[in-house]
Amino acid sequence: MRFRVVHRTEYRYTNEVSVGHSIAHLLPRSTEFQRCRAGSVVIEPRPDDKREHTDYFGNRVVYFSLQDPHDHLSVRATSEIEVWARDVPEPPPTPWDEVRDALRSSTARELLAAREYVLPSPLVPVTSELAAYAAPSFTPGRPLAEAVVDLARRIHDEFVYEPGATSVATPVADVLAHRRGVCQDFAHLAIGCVRAMGLAARYVSGYLETEPPPGAEKLVGADASHAWVSVLIPGWGWLDLDPTNDVPVDDRHLVVAHGRDFGDVTPLKGVVFSRGGDHELIVAVDVTRID
Amino acid sequence: MIPGTGLLEPYRSDAAFDELVAPDGRVRTHWSQVIGALQQLGPEQLRARHAEVERLLRNDGVTYNIHGDPTGLGNPWSLDPLPLLMGSEEWAGIEQGVAQRAELWNLVVADLYGPRELLHRGVLPPELVFDHDGFLRPWDGVTLRGPHELFLYAADLVRGPDGSMVVLGDRAQAPSGAGYALENRVVVSRVFPSLYRDAQVHRLAPFFRALRGGLAAVAPEGTEDPRVVILSPGRFNESYFEHAFLGSSLGYPVVEGPDLTVRQGRVWLRALGGLEPVDVILRRVDGWWCDPLELRPDSRLGVPGLVEAARRGAVSVANPLGTGAIENPGLIGYLPAMARHLLGEDLALPSPQTWWCGDETDRAHVLANLDRLVLKPTSRGAGQSSVFGWELSTSQRDALRRRIAGEPRRWVGQERVEPSTSPALLGSSLEARPTIVRTYAVARREDYLVMAGGLVRVAPSPDNLLISGQSGGISKDLWVLASEPEAQAGLWVRSDGAPPLAEPSMAMPSRAAENLFWLGRYAERAEVTIRLLRCIIDRRNDSAGDLNPSVVACLHGLFTALTHLTATYPGFVGEDADARLADPDDELRSVVAATDREGSLASSLRSLLAAAHAVQDQLSSDTWLVVSNLERELDQLDQPSADPDADAQIALAGIIKSLLALAGLGMESMVRDPGWQFLDAGRRIERAMLLLTLLRSTLVPVRDRGTESLMFESVLKAAESIITYRRRHRANAQLGTLLDLLLLDATNPRSLAYQLDRLAEDVGDMPRERQTRLSEEERLILDASTRLRLADLDALGTGQDAVRWELDALLTELHDLLSETAAAIDAHHFTHLPRQIMVGQPGLLDAGNGDAP
Predict the structure, then answer these.
(1) Is the pLDDT of residue A213 over 90?
(2) I need a surface site. Which of A118, B28, B545, B746 has the fewest CB within 10 A?
(3) Burial tier of A165 (Cβ tally within 10 Å: 0-12, 13-18, 19+)
(4) What is the three-class DSSP state of A193?
């Protein structure tokens, strides 16, 4: 299936700001299941400098800067993505505790590289509270894939999706305590739980096609960035899970970038110099099926 | 043992190895010449040389700031004049070992930010690298030009009980101390000139030449004459002296993050006269703090966009930002394996055995042996320092055990090494102290050059094992003794006879110009304040007990002038002024000594010193002599005293002497470059404005003849023009002639006309974009000069309703014009950075006040 994604971000500053440097994770990477056919980032006012590079995680990053004072900034990322159905064999029934042990001791390249995602990361500390929450899904000997699917389902069932209940700065511990949040919080929560069990999990940012099939319920995540979680099944690959919606991640999930947590893949961040004043931020995402 | 002087009589070491005395009680051969010379000098001379060392260090303004100590800013550097000696042959082995280690670490850095084979092949446990604060993912794939990713490396060495050297620590982030080593060498060789000459000591200059050459070599491709800056966290950093010293020794401007900006993908210096490109940054800010865009978002010490500029190869940063990843003692245990894997060699210089607690077996060993190990955190940071397991109580040990168990990856245990002792010269005798040596390696095109010397530190007390600048250690020079004399060469001359490297001198950072401008202003403000204070003291002394109304009125006039001049309102004007005028002592003392009161003499001096420290690299060593005097005098100002008035006069006399010396140095020892123009302009503006304030507050009110006569005399004194006046006019002071001398006489260096002339010259020479038009500040000064010349002096003298309105108007107008001139200089030449803000998604996160690392 092919999609066109338009992701608009607009800052309006009450007072002019000078010299802005920004980096954007807005152009989708190509993966096993998708290819980014065309992608562009159009910035207004026209930036003095703009360059794309690939980051540590293999994501596409656009750096740009504006030298002159400006009172608004608009960043419009347009991309065409072809996505294939994840027509893959069922994950092997390897018990999760066996995987945990292999991650500790194996010298296989795949496992050594994945150990980065077992560690806590800046936005996802690994705590005993997370381990306690995860525990019921991780009964001894249970196949890893089954355990994480169960975890994602529990998060979906036991937490309330509530925009505005949290912000980027809300710690995972608060999300766990108050049982509410948005996709990013649930992804962080799931990552923390998986890591607390000694397994590898990473954060995926992207989009979800929101056009509901006839008669079906409209899915959460419409017209916004979406985020989910990916867990390593050794010998098989990374298994994506969407704890926000508890639906299989398939050809309606479009990947932009992945990292340890949100901090590695922030869609747009920047440094400006300001004499004070407030700002307004508008983000709008449109995902349309082309064929 | 050499009998006689007693220098060695009490010398005894409890350590297994002593640098000076062999187990058989004999002085080791390579020490005998130096010890013999010291004995010949005798105790008196030794004490004198020690005092000379302290004097020289003080005069050079050598300081080391201690963290967490508000009074720790500007702590004097402590240097033992007796160097540590090492034979050439032994040093050759150390040199080779340090170079090998630098090369090895270099390959590790290159791998960690490149293919990461060390992790993928299981040579290193991934967590050891991935969970370390120094591993900077945004730096991935960024490379330095040339074959090395590690530019500068330092090893902390101690000699163990068996006499062999071990590396106790590796420094790769932004190794400090090389500048202190150079300063130590300069001082010690001045204090022991013949000893230094006769001992045939290896020079440090080749190292610093290699440093300069290396910085030029790593400059981005196509750069003909690389422009190099030293990036410093600023004057509150512990080793700021060193940044300034290296800057002035190597000829590089010392800059702070806000002095730099990234445009079109490259780095620029905000310099006087515009932006200047920067090609190479010698970095003294920890990597994590260097770019708020891609690294620590709340850092104010960095440059937004720096990582991107380096990624493009448009700027070279040495050391590269990611090198902190190897400043990780957890790597030590894997070093032998990495040496074999990467170099195919065994380590020449070992480290004490080290266990990383992220490994289960290692952790078990560490936890079982806490009481005999040194426990080190893997990342250096606030509250992170080494712990000696054997010094802990049972409960402390339990707490540490819990801490390690909670974050095992962040700890290592290291075998304790009992360092050798070396002789410290205390007074006139020697005492054995545990000793650590830091030496440096710098990348050359093919290999690493190791400094033939280093920075030695000895424990502050015989049993203290934590030897570091932060814990108040004593430093020493390291003399590597050559078997034959070495050709002497300066820092700037190349040993191969080639002409010195041609490098463009960079324009001055505009922040430096701003500090020089304020240095001038505060120096003048302090000087004028003291002059007026002395007039007041003299007037009071002259009239002791005399309650003549003229004297009282004159004194009151001077008191109010003091308040206006120092802007220490309400003071002697405004509310409750009468009470203070009747009993002025407390207020006067406060205007002199209250550091926290803006406008007070102490506060002006403090601001002067702050400005001087901020431009330490721009000032001559003689200037530091004066600055350090001023520092001591300022300290003494608020000391309690039995006879406050007498002591105050002595203190003021001392301070004004230093201020005059400072002014003299400015005139006689500074090149007339833009820096000088700003310093001088600051002085001229301040002197002119204070003169106008003084005249306005003393001469505008019309008083009776007796009072005016006293007042005129005091004003002339305060304006340092009384002698000239008396020589020219026999009679009592008259207003007209007084105004002539103080306002119009362009030959009087204290007159307003003189300040305006000088200011016009200074401002005319300042950098600007268009030469054909007058700048705003030039126009303002011209305006002031014209108004002054056109003024009708006769009319100024007449008053109405006890006020000289015309005079008041003229003085006010001129004051306003000068104050606009200052504002125009500020607006056109200095950097005005708004607040740096991190714009995140979806919210604006205020960066807060970035605290120092």
Answers:
(1) no
(2) B545
(3) middle
(4) helix
**Chain A residues near residue B308 by CB distance under 8 angstroms:** 21, 23, 51, 63
Indicate if the pLDDT at residue B470 is higher than 70.
no
Least confident of B11-15, B409-413, B561-565, B814-818: B11-15
Q: B845 at the A interface (CB within 8 A)?
A: yes
Look at residue B204 in the predicted model and tell me its pLDDT: 95
CB crowding B457-494: b at 16 or more within 10 Å, else e = bbbbebeebbbbbeebbbbbbbbbbbeeeeeeeebeee
Cα maximum dimension of chain A: 61
Band of the pLDDT at A222, cuts 50, 70, 90? Answer: low
Chain A contact for B298 (CB, 8 A cutoff)? no
Domains of chain A: 2-84+266-289 (2.60.40.2250), 96-249 (3.10.620.30)
Strand-pair partners of B165? B159
Taking the Cβ of residue B841 and every Cβ of chain A, the question of whether any pair is shorter than 8 Å is answered with: yes
Are A11 and B833 inside 8 Å of each other by CB?
no
Angle between helices B752-765 and B674-699 (to 10 degrees): 150
As given in the structure block, the two tokens for residue B585 are 């002592």
| CA gap B206, B449 in Å, rounded | 9
Q: Which of B85, B160, B176 minimizes the C-alpha distance to B452?
A: B85
ipTM, two decimals, is 0.95
CB contact under 8 A, B263 and A264: no
Give the pLDDT of residue B852.
27
Residue B769 is predicted with a pLDDT of: 67
DSSP SS3 for A237: strand
pLDDT in tens, B410-466: 999 999 999 999 999 887 889 999 999 999 999 998 899 999 999 999 988 766 555
B308 touches chain A (CB under 8 A): yes
Domain ranges of chain B: 58-331+418-481, 354-415, 519-670
Please give the Cα distance from A26 to A8 (Å, whole number).
Answer: 10
- Cβ-Cβ contacts under 8 Å, A276 against chain B: 835
B316-351 per-position pLDDT tens digit: 999 999 999 999 999 999 999 999 999 999 999 999
Asked if B840 and A168 come within 8 Å (Cβ–Cβ), the reply is yes
Residue B293 contacts A where some CB pair is shorter than 8 Å = yes
**Distance from the B405 Cα atom to the nearest Cα atom in chain A, whole angstroms:** 14
pLDDT on residue B488: 60
pTM: 0.89
- CA B75 to chain centroid: 11
For residues B482 and B600, what is the distance between their CA atoms, to the nearest angstrom?
Answer: 56
Q: Distance, in angstroms, between B438 CA and closest chain A CA?
A: 34
CA distance A34 to A204: 14
Cross-chain Cβ contact B263/A67 below 8 Å: yes
**Amino acid in the structure at residue B159:** R
Q: Which of A18, A112, A167 sits opposite B120 (nearest CB)?
A: A112
CB contact under 8 A, B837 and A268: no
Question: Is the CB of B293 less than 8 angstroms away from the CB of A21?
Answer: yes
Please state at what angle helix B510-542 crosses helix B805-829, rounded to 10 degrees. 150
- pLDDT digit string, tens, across residues B759-779: 999 999 888 766 678 889 999
Nearest by CB to B120, from A9, A109, A267: name it. Answer: A109
- Least Cα distance to B677 among B815, B778, B577 occurs for B778
Q: How far apart are CA B123 and CA A191, in angstroms?
A: 27
Looking at domain B354-415, its CATH architecture is 2-Layer Sandwich (3.30)
Beta strands in B705-783 (DSSP E): none
Query: In chain B, whose CA is at the least distance from the CA of A25?
Result: B841
Q: Among partner residues B305, B843, B844, which is closest to A65 by beta-carbon distance?
A: B305
